[in-house]
Each structure stands twice: as structure tokens, then as C-alpha cells.
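User: Predict the complex.
Assistant: Input components as received:
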Amino acid sequence: MVKRTSFEGDACPIARSLDALGDWWSLLIIREALFGLRRFGEFQNKLGMARNILAVRLRALVDHGILATAPASDGSAYQEYVLTPKGRGTFPILVALRQWSEEFDDRPEEIATVLVDREKGRPVKKLELRAADGRLLTPAETMVKPRPAPRRRSA
Amino acid sequence: MVKRTSFEGDACPIARSLDALGDWWSLLIIREALFGLRRFGEFQNKLGMARNILAVRLRALVDHGILATAPASDGSAYQEYVLTPKGRGTFPILVALRQWSEEFDDRPEEIATVLVDREKGRPVKKLELRAADGRLLTPAETMVKPRPAPRRRSA
DNA sequence: TTGTGTGGTTGCATCATAAAACCGAATGCC
DNA sequence: GGCATTCGGTTTTATGATGCAACCACACAA
């Protein structure tokens, strides 16, 4: 996407997230990583993407602290890519994307899988946004405020 | 990005969402639309993006049923772009992106805003994933299952 | 030593992107 | 009505990210 207008310096947290995750492949790589994939070849086989692009993406994700390279694991002297806590923290994003598709896709019958809780095997609930006191919030009931000052003990 | 490997036919709901939302600008346009922007020029000013790209993105979002064009509203004979229910349904995705940035960004002090509930003015809670019975779920406590058969009244 | 599989990198053609010029229609000003 | 300006895009052009395939380096095996 040409010069890509990096959002890195932007003050909007959404833009900042998109700067790390907002390309066509990164979230899918993370999805597979959450699923347990670790090796270059595994990602390449599963996603069917070009290997050079995969290499670039993996390096970018490592640079962003989303993946880390582990020296090895199964004997073979190659390296693996494992999710960091930051990487695992994208889980709600993936769930939100999944649920949006489930709810609004024009051809929901083409969706092959559902997300269930492992223990009971039943579909998970929709993500919901709640206020600090637990009230359910619609978008209209929210607003953004300037970030409160750095709060240096000033009470 | 050349031929862009459209995910439209993919069975993964995440890929399907990314097909509609997964470029650099669409989610930011939607963010501004949720914020109340409606006019071409408003988007262009606020986002500072190239106008041709904005035009392409707006048309794509309309084609995807995320935005709709309204004939006018404030007298001037121009058109507006308003969110459809499908478009408003992206709200959790944006919240998830925001919260991920808030939690994991390397320079959180550069984030300018917080999302609060309008009534109390207090920051919202983190999105949380719960099982059907209300248990909080971690990623590891979930799994994906093949979609149950179309369920044609078969009990 | 040769062979094979993994894990990438390098070239190259193509196409999406970004920036700016351009353009018609609508609006404002007189 | 005439003229300039703004709005809402489209066109043009340069750039560079993408996808594909070929290539390379290394590990391991025979």
C-alpha cells in the first residue's frame, strides 16, 4: 500500500493498533499462532501465502513484540515463532471480528466454524461492553474523553 | 497490494471480516462515522487521507453494506454517508483494538483519549469473553468447532 | 558426496496506493 | 445574471507493497 501512511505517531489508540495489526495477513498469522502453529512452514502451508511476505510479516510481528522467536523446541535446530502476552492480548480483537462476521455476514452459511468454550462445548456469548458499574453500553452511550493528565500523585 | 488475495470465499469468519474491514483506512472511517461524521469533506479533513482513496473506500464500504448514502440532510444538495446497523456492529471491534493499544502499547502516554460511559464519565470495562453460562474465558479455554449442521428443524 | 527438506531471500511483473492536478456541479457573493 | 469558491469526487502519475517463482543456505540423512 505504498508508503502506507504509518499511524505510529497517531494519538488515536485504534490507529496505533492498526499500525501493528492492520494489514491483510497479520491477524490471520496471529489467529494460527493462537491455534498452536509455530513454524514458518506451518504458517505457510496453512495460510497459503507467499513466503517472502510471510517472512516480512513475521519479522514485523516480532519487531512489534507480538511474536517472539524461540531458538528451537522439537530438536530441529530451527526457530519457532511463539506469541508473547501482547500477542495473546489480541484475542478479543479476533473474537470481535469473528462475531461481527457471524452476525452480519451476507452468507453466514459459508462460515465453517463456531467458537465454543472448551469445557462445555457451547458457543461463547457475544462480547459486550460494560460500564465500570456493570451497565451494558451501546455505542451511543459512550464517548471519548481526553486522557486524564499523567496523574503524578497530584490527587 | 496486488491481487490482494480476497478472503471473500474463505470459510473463516475472521478472514471474512478482514475482507471488508482489513485495510488501512476502513476502520478509521468507521470510527469517524461512529463519531458522527457524515460528509466526504469531513472525513477527508479529519483523516487527512488522499481523496481518491477515500472515494474508493467509501464506495467499498457502501458495497459491503457498512455505510449507506443518504440523499442529503442539512439542505445542501450533497449526499452523506451514514452507518448501517452492520456498520454500527463494528463497535466491539473498535473497542477491542482500542483496549489492546491501551494495554500493550509501548508508549501509552501518547494515547490521547479514553473511552468512557457518557452517563458517569468513567472509563469502560475491558471487553471480556464469557461462556454461555457466564464463566470468564481465556483463549486457552476456548476452541473452534465445525459449524453445527444447518439445523433444518431436525430437532 | 549427493540428495532432500526446511527456512528463508532475491528478482521481477503487477497492481493498489498516495499525492496532486483536474473538473463539473452547487453554493456564495455581488 | 456573472464570477469566485467550495464540495465531491475522477484522472493522472510515481511509487512501492504484493505475489510468484527461482534461488540460496543450512541441517540432516544416506
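Residues 1-5, 39-41, 44, 51-52, 54-55, 76, 78-79 of chain B lie near DNA strand D (CB under 10 Å from a C1').
Let me know if you want any component modeled separately.
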